[in-house]
Here is the input.
Amino acid sequence: MRRKPHLRKHIAVLPCDGAGKEVVPEAIKVLRAAGADLEFQEYDVNADQYMRSGQPIPPDVWNDLQKADAILFGAVGDPRIDDSTYLAGVLLRLRFELDLYVNLRPAKLYDDRLSPLRREERRMVDMLIVRENTEGLYVGMGGRFKKGTEQEVAIQEDLNTYLGVTRIIEYAFGAAKGEVVMVDKSNAMTHAGGLWQQQWKAVAKKHPNIKTRHLYVDAAAMQLVRDPSQFDVIVTGNLFGDILSDLTAELIGGMGIAPSANINPKTGRGLFEPVHGTAPDIAGRGVVNPVGAILSASMMVKHLGYTEMANAIEGAVESAIRAGECTRDIGGDLSTSQAGDAVAKRLKD
Ligand code: ATP
Here is the structure.
Protein backbone atom coordinates (compact mmCIF):
# COMPACT_ATOMS: atom_id res chain seq x y z
CA MET A 1 0.00 0.00 0.00
CA ARG A 2 1.31 3.47 -0.83
CA ARG A 3 2.00 5.62 2.19
CA LYS A 4 0.56 9.10 2.36
CA PRO A 5 3.17 10.79 4.57
CA HIS A 6 1.37 14.12 4.59
CA LEU A 7 -1.65 12.50 6.22
CA ARG A 8 0.34 10.76 8.92
CA LYS A 9 0.07 12.58 12.22
CA HIS A 10 3.32 13.35 13.95
CA ILE A 11 3.36 12.49 17.64
CA ALA A 12 6.12 13.90 19.83
CA VAL A 13 6.86 11.43 22.60
CA LEU A 14 8.20 12.71 25.93
CA PRO A 15 8.44 9.84 28.44
CA CYS A 16 10.60 12.04 30.76
CA ASP A 17 11.34 10.50 34.17
CA GLY A 18 10.55 7.67 36.59
CA ALA A 19 7.24 5.91 35.97
CA GLY A 20 6.76 8.00 32.81
CA LYS A 21 9.59 6.07 31.11
CA GLU A 22 7.85 2.78 31.86
CA VAL A 23 4.26 3.63 30.97
CA VAL A 24 4.69 5.59 27.73
CA PRO A 25 6.15 2.62 25.75
CA GLU A 26 3.07 0.61 26.79
CA ALA A 27 0.78 3.36 25.50
CA ILE A 28 2.63 3.27 22.15
CA LYS A 29 2.43 -0.53 22.08
CA VAL A 30 -1.35 -0.29 22.48
CA LEU A 31 -1.70 2.44 19.85
CA ARG A 32 0.21 0.25 17.39
CA ALA A 33 -1.96 -2.76 18.24
CA ALA A 34 -5.02 -0.61 17.60
CA GLY A 35 -3.69 0.10 14.12
CA ALA A 36 -2.89 3.77 14.64
CA ASP A 37 -1.08 5.14 11.60
CA LEU A 38 0.97 7.63 13.57
CA GLU A 39 4.58 8.67 13.38
CA PHE A 40 6.24 8.68 16.79
CA GLN A 41 9.35 10.66 17.56
CA GLU A 42 10.87 10.44 21.01
CA TYR A 43 12.74 13.41 22.47
CA ASP A 44 15.48 13.57 25.05
CA VAL A 45 13.67 15.72 27.60
CA ASN A 46 14.36 14.42 31.10
CA ALA A 47 16.23 15.07 34.32
CA ASP A 48 19.57 13.70 33.04
CA GLN A 49 19.43 15.94 30.00
CA TYR A 50 18.50 18.94 32.19
CA MET A 51 21.36 18.26 34.60
CA ARG A 52 23.78 18.04 31.66
CA SER A 53 22.61 21.08 29.70
CA GLY A 54 20.79 23.27 32.23
CA GLN A 55 17.93 23.53 29.73
CA PRO A 56 14.63 21.85 30.61
CA ILE A 57 13.72 21.72 26.91
CA PRO A 58 16.53 22.43 24.40
CA PRO A 59 15.56 25.06 21.76
CA ASP A 60 15.61 22.65 18.77
CA VAL A 61 13.32 20.25 20.62
CA TRP A 62 11.00 23.11 21.49
CA ASN A 63 10.68 23.99 17.79
CA ASP A 64 9.63 20.42 17.01
CA LEU A 65 7.18 20.25 19.90
CA GLN A 66 5.41 23.34 18.63
CA LYS A 67 4.88 21.68 15.26
CA ALA A 68 3.78 18.22 16.46
CA ASP A 69 0.17 17.16 15.95
CA ALA A 70 0.11 15.96 19.55
CA ILE A 71 2.44 15.29 22.45
CA LEU A 72 2.36 11.99 24.34
CA PHE A 73 3.80 12.67 27.76
CA GLY A 74 4.82 10.53 30.73
CA ALA A 75 5.80 12.32 33.93
CA VAL A 76 8.41 14.82 34.95
CA GLY A 77 10.42 15.09 38.16
CA ASP A 78 13.53 13.80 39.84
CA PRO A 79 14.58 13.69 43.49
CA ARG A 80 18.07 14.91 42.50
CA ILE A 81 16.60 18.26 41.40
CA ASP A 82 15.29 20.26 44.31
CA ASP A 83 14.21 23.45 42.52
CA SER A 84 11.00 23.96 40.60
CA THR A 85 12.73 25.28 37.44
CA TYR A 86 12.75 21.87 35.80
CA LEU A 87 9.02 21.15 36.24
CA ALA A 88 8.14 24.73 35.28
CA GLY A 89 10.46 24.54 32.27
CA VAL A 90 8.90 21.35 30.91
CA LEU A 91 5.27 20.67 31.75
CA LEU A 92 4.14 24.14 32.81
CA ARG A 93 5.94 25.73 29.86
CA LEU A 94 4.18 23.40 27.45
CA ARG A 95 0.80 24.06 29.05
CA PHE A 96 1.29 27.82 29.20
CA GLU A 97 3.11 28.57 25.94
CA LEU A 98 1.04 26.21 23.80
CA ASP A 99 -1.96 27.72 25.60
CA LEU A 100 -3.40 24.31 26.50
CA TYR A 101 -6.10 25.89 28.59
CA VAL A 102 -8.38 22.87 28.96
CA ASN A 103 -7.25 20.08 31.25
CA LEU A 104 -9.64 17.16 30.93
CA ARG A 105 -9.54 14.62 33.71
CA PRO A 106 -12.19 11.95 33.24
CA ALA A 107 -12.94 9.42 35.95
CA LYS A 108 -14.81 6.25 35.09
CA LEU A 109 -15.20 3.15 37.21
CA TYR A 110 -14.41 0.14 34.98
CA ASP A 111 -14.98 -2.53 37.59
CA ASP A 112 -17.01 -2.42 40.77
CA ARG A 113 -14.24 -4.08 42.78
CA LEU A 114 -12.01 -1.02 42.27
CA SER A 115 -14.32 1.31 44.17
CA PRO A 116 -13.34 2.21 47.73
CA LEU A 117 -16.98 3.03 48.56
CA ARG A 118 -19.00 0.80 50.85
CA ARG A 119 -22.41 1.54 49.35
CA GLU A 120 -22.89 -0.13 45.99
CA GLU A 121 -25.45 2.30 44.60
CA ARG A 122 -23.03 5.21 44.98
CA ARG A 123 -20.03 3.57 43.31
CA MET A 124 -20.92 4.28 39.70
CA VAL A 125 -18.51 7.02 38.63
CA ASP A 126 -18.51 8.43 35.11
CA MET A 127 -17.55 12.04 35.27
CA LEU A 128 -15.25 14.64 33.83
CA ILE A 129 -13.27 17.33 35.59
CA VAL A 130 -12.65 20.31 33.32
CA ARG A 131 -9.74 22.08 34.95
CA GLU A 132 -8.49 25.53 33.94
CA ASN A 133 -4.87 24.87 32.97
CA THR A 134 -3.10 28.14 32.22
CA GLU A 135 -3.95 30.51 35.07
CA GLY A 136 -4.70 30.47 38.78
CA LEU A 137 -2.09 29.83 41.41
CA TYR A 138 0.17 27.87 39.06
CA VAL A 139 1.45 30.79 36.98
CA GLY A 140 4.34 31.35 39.38
CA MET A 141 3.68 35.02 40.10
CA GLY A 142 4.74 36.33 43.49
CA GLY A 143 7.91 36.17 45.47
CA ARG A 144 9.68 35.68 48.74
CA PHE A 145 10.79 38.78 50.64
CA LYS A 146 13.45 38.54 53.36
CA LYS A 147 13.92 34.92 52.38
CA GLY A 148 15.45 32.72 55.04
CA THR A 149 14.79 35.12 57.92
CA GLU A 150 12.09 35.01 60.56
CA GLN A 151 10.51 38.05 58.90
CA GLU A 152 10.06 36.22 55.60
CA VAL A 153 6.98 37.05 53.55
CA ALA A 154 5.86 34.71 50.74
CA ILE A 155 3.26 35.75 48.20
CA GLN A 156 1.73 33.44 45.60
CA GLU A 157 -0.65 35.23 43.27
CA ASP A 158 -3.87 33.75 41.94
CA LEU A 159 -4.22 34.99 38.37
CA ASN A 160 -7.70 34.88 36.85
CA THR A 161 -8.62 36.64 33.62
CA TYR A 162 -11.95 37.37 32.01
CA LEU A 163 -10.85 35.49 28.88
CA GLY A 164 -9.43 32.52 30.78
CA VAL A 165 -12.39 32.05 33.10
CA THR A 166 -14.96 32.52 30.33
CA ARG A 167 -13.38 30.11 27.86
CA ILE A 168 -13.01 27.25 30.34
CA ILE A 169 -16.61 27.58 31.53
CA GLU A 170 -17.77 27.67 27.91
CA TYR A 171 -15.80 24.50 27.18
CA ALA A 172 -17.44 22.72 30.13
CA PHE A 173 -20.92 23.49 28.83
CA GLY A 174 -19.92 22.07 25.44
CA ALA A 175 -18.72 18.85 27.12
CA ALA A 176 -21.74 18.28 29.37
CA LYS A 177 -24.59 15.90 28.64
CA GLY A 178 -26.39 16.30 31.95
CA GLU A 179 -25.26 18.86 34.47
CA VAL A 180 -22.32 21.24 34.90
CA VAL A 181 -21.16 21.91 38.45
CA MET A 182 -18.89 24.91 38.94
CA VAL A 183 -16.54 24.63 41.91
CA ASP A 184 -14.79 27.59 43.51
CA LYS A 185 -14.21 29.15 46.92
CA SER A 186 -15.89 32.47 46.18
CA ASN A 187 -17.15 32.90 49.74
CA ALA A 188 -13.58 33.29 51.01
CA MET A 189 -11.61 34.21 47.87
CA THR A 190 -13.93 36.98 46.80
CA HIS A 191 -11.99 38.71 44.01
CA ALA A 192 -11.11 35.73 41.85
CA GLY A 193 -14.29 33.99 42.97
CA GLY A 194 -16.30 37.06 42.00
CA LEU A 195 -15.04 36.86 38.42
CA TRP A 196 -15.77 33.11 38.28
CA GLN A 197 -19.29 33.67 39.63
CA GLN A 198 -19.97 36.49 37.18
CA GLN A 199 -18.83 34.53 34.11
CA TRP A 200 -20.43 31.31 35.33
CA LYS A 201 -23.81 33.04 35.43
CA ALA A 202 -23.24 34.78 32.09
CA VAL A 203 -22.25 31.57 30.26
CA ALA A 204 -24.97 29.49 31.96
CA LYS A 205 -27.62 31.88 30.60
CA LYS A 206 -26.55 30.94 27.07
CA HIS A 207 -27.17 27.23 27.82
CA PRO A 208 -30.68 27.07 29.27
CA ASN A 209 -31.00 23.35 28.47
CA ILE A 210 -28.08 22.27 30.63
CA LYS A 211 -28.61 21.90 34.37
CA THR A 212 -26.23 23.87 36.56
CA ARG A 213 -25.10 23.77 40.16
CA HIS A 214 -22.48 25.60 42.16
CA LEU A 215 -20.46 24.10 45.00
CA TYR A 216 -17.73 25.51 47.19
CA VAL A 217 -14.64 23.33 46.92
CA ASP A 218 -14.92 22.00 50.47
CA ALA A 219 -18.51 20.89 49.85
CA ALA A 220 -17.47 19.42 46.48
CA ALA A 221 -14.77 17.29 48.16
CA MET A 222 -17.33 16.02 50.65
CA GLN A 223 -19.95 15.25 47.97
CA LEU A 224 -17.39 13.48 45.77
CA VAL A 225 -16.64 11.03 48.54
CA ARG A 226 -20.23 10.73 49.78
CA ASP A 227 -21.86 10.07 46.40
CA PRO A 228 -19.74 10.56 43.28
CA SER A 229 -22.47 9.10 41.05
CA GLN A 230 -24.25 12.46 41.19
CA PHE A 231 -21.62 14.21 39.02
CA ASP A 232 -21.35 14.63 35.25
CA VAL A 233 -19.05 17.59 34.52
CA ILE A 234 -17.20 19.69 37.09
CA VAL A 235 -15.52 22.90 35.94
CA THR A 236 -13.00 24.57 38.22
CA GLY A 237 -9.70 26.43 38.49
CA ASN A 238 -6.17 25.11 38.25
CA LEU A 239 -5.49 24.31 41.91
CA PHE A 240 -8.89 22.86 42.84
CA GLY A 241 -8.94 20.82 39.63
CA ASP A 242 -5.54 19.36 40.44
CA ILE A 243 -6.61 18.36 43.93
CA LEU A 244 -10.10 17.07 43.14
CA SER A 245 -8.81 14.95 40.26
CA ASP A 246 -6.49 13.04 42.60
CA LEU A 247 -9.57 12.38 44.70
CA THR A 248 -11.61 11.20 41.71
CA ALA A 249 -8.69 8.97 40.63
CA GLU A 250 -8.96 7.16 43.96
CA LEU A 251 -12.69 6.67 43.38
CA ILE A 252 -11.99 4.60 40.26
CA GLY A 253 -9.03 2.51 41.40
CA GLY A 254 -6.13 4.85 42.05
CA MET A 255 -3.50 7.05 40.47
CA GLY A 256 -2.32 4.32 38.13
CA ILE A 257 -5.39 4.38 35.94
CA ALA A 258 -6.42 8.05 35.67
CA PRO A 259 -5.80 9.71 32.29
CA SER A 260 -5.71 13.35 31.24
CA ALA A 261 -5.62 15.62 28.21
CA ASN A 262 -4.27 19.14 28.01
CA ILE A 263 -5.78 20.76 24.95
CA ASN A 264 -6.47 23.98 23.13
CA PRO A 265 -9.71 23.30 21.27
CA LYS A 266 -9.18 26.38 19.09
CA THR A 267 -5.68 25.62 17.77
CA GLY A 268 -6.04 21.83 18.02
CA ARG A 269 -2.82 21.53 20.06
CA GLY A 270 -2.77 18.81 22.71
CA LEU A 271 -0.60 17.08 25.29
CA PHE A 272 -1.77 13.79 26.76
CA GLU A 273 -0.45 12.41 30.04
CA PRO A 274 -1.48 10.16 32.92
CA VAL A 275 -2.61 12.05 36.03
CA HIS A 276 0.08 10.36 38.10
CA GLY A 277 3.61 11.64 38.46
CA THR A 278 6.94 9.84 38.45
CA ALA A 279 5.92 7.53 41.35
CA PRO A 280 9.46 7.46 42.78
CA ASP A 281 8.43 4.94 45.45
CA ILE A 282 7.72 2.21 42.89
CA ALA A 283 9.31 3.35 39.61
CA GLY A 284 11.97 1.27 37.85
CA ARG A 285 10.78 -2.10 39.09
CA GLY A 286 8.37 -2.97 36.28
CA VAL A 287 5.30 -2.73 38.50
CA VAL A 288 3.74 0.65 37.66
CA ASN A 289 0.33 0.56 36.07
CA PRO A 290 0.35 1.64 32.40
CA VAL A 291 -3.45 2.13 32.19
CA GLY A 292 -3.41 5.88 32.95
CA ALA A 293 -0.97 6.39 30.07
CA ILE A 294 -2.89 4.02 27.77
CA LEU A 295 -6.17 5.83 28.41
CA SER A 296 -4.40 9.16 27.84
CA ALA A 297 -3.29 7.80 24.45
CA SER A 298 -6.91 6.90 23.80
CA MET A 299 -7.87 10.51 24.57
CA MET A 300 -5.14 11.58 22.14
CA VAL A 301 -6.48 9.58 19.20
CA LYS A 302 -9.99 10.78 19.99
CA HIS A 303 -8.70 14.35 19.89
CA LEU A 304 -7.06 13.60 16.53
CA GLY A 305 -10.40 12.42 15.17
CA TYR A 306 -10.10 8.62 15.51
CA THR A 307 -13.11 8.15 17.77
CA GLU A 308 -13.65 4.46 16.98
CA MET A 309 -10.05 3.64 17.78
CA ALA A 310 -10.30 5.56 21.05
CA ASN A 311 -13.40 3.61 22.03
CA ALA A 312 -11.75 0.31 21.09
CA ILE A 313 -8.75 1.09 23.32
CA GLU A 314 -11.00 2.04 26.22
CA GLY A 315 -13.02 -1.17 25.71
CA ALA A 316 -9.83 -3.25 25.72
CA VAL A 317 -8.67 -1.59 28.94
CA GLU A 318 -12.02 -2.26 30.59
CA SER A 319 -11.98 -5.90 29.47
CA ALA A 320 -8.41 -6.45 30.73
CA ILE A 321 -9.21 -4.88 34.11
CA ARG A 322 -12.39 -6.93 34.51
CA ALA A 323 -10.44 -10.10 33.70
CA GLY A 324 -7.90 -9.20 36.39
CA GLU A 325 -5.15 -8.95 33.76
CA CYS A 326 -3.56 -5.91 35.31
CA THR A 327 -0.89 -4.69 37.70
CA ARG A 328 -1.00 -5.28 41.43
CA ASP A 329 -2.22 -1.79 42.43
CA ILE A 330 -5.59 -2.73 40.94
CA GLY A 331 -5.63 -6.34 42.07
CA GLY A 332 -3.68 -8.19 39.39
CA ASP A 333 -0.21 -9.68 39.37
CA LEU A 334 1.11 -8.59 35.97
CA SER A 335 4.17 -6.48 35.27
CA THR A 336 3.88 -3.10 33.51
CA SER A 337 4.76 -4.66 30.18
CA GLN A 338 2.45 -7.68 30.63
CA ALA A 339 -0.41 -5.33 31.53
CA GLY A 340 0.27 -3.42 28.30
CA ASP A 341 0.26 -6.74 26.41
CA ALA A 342 -3.10 -7.68 27.99
CA VAL A 343 -4.68 -4.57 26.47
CA ALA A 344 -2.81 -4.84 23.15
CA LYS A 345 -3.80 -8.46 22.54
CA ARG A 346 -7.50 -7.57 22.86
CA LEU A 347 -7.09 -5.04 20.07
CA LYS A 348 -5.29 -7.49 17.77
CA ASP A 349 -7.77 -10.38 18.33
P1 ATP B 1 5.74 13.23 41.63
O1 ATP B 1 6.65 13.95 42.57
O2 ATP B 1 6.39 12.89 40.33
O3 ATP B 1 4.40 13.91 41.45
P2 ATP B 1 4.45 11.57 43.59
O4 ATP B 1 4.85 10.29 44.26
O5 ATP B 1 4.30 12.78 44.41
O6 ATP B 1 5.42 11.82 42.35
P3 ATP B 1 2.56 10.26 41.97
O7 ATP B 1 3.61 9.82 41.04
O8 ATP B 1 1.32 10.76 41.35
O9 ATP B 1 3.04 11.39 42.90
O10 ATP B 1 2.25 9.04 42.93
C1 ATP B 1 1.34 9.10 44.02
C2 ATP B 1 1.10 7.70 44.53
O11 ATP B 1 0.43 6.92 43.55
C3 ATP B 1 2.39 6.95 44.83
O12 ATP B 1 2.24 6.22 46.04
C4 ATP B 1 2.58 5.97 43.72
O13 ATP B 1 3.14 4.78 44.09
C5 ATP B 1 1.15 5.77 43.18
N1 ATP B 1 1.20 5.67 41.73
C6 ATP B 1 1.45 6.69 40.89
N2 ATP B 1 1.49 6.27 39.62
C7 ATP B 1 1.23 4.96 39.64
C8 ATP B 1 1.14 3.96 38.63
N3 ATP B 1 1.30 4.24 37.34
N4 ATP B 1 0.87 2.69 39.02
C9 ATP B 1 0.69 2.39 40.31
N5 ATP B 1 0.77 3.29 41.30
C10 ATP B 1 1.05 4.56 40.99
In short: Residues 19, 23, 75, 77, 255-256, 276-282, 288-289, 292, 329 surround adenosine-5'-triphosphate (CB under 6 Å). The two ends are 22 Å apart (CA to CA). Residues 1-5 have pLDDT under 50 and may be disordered.
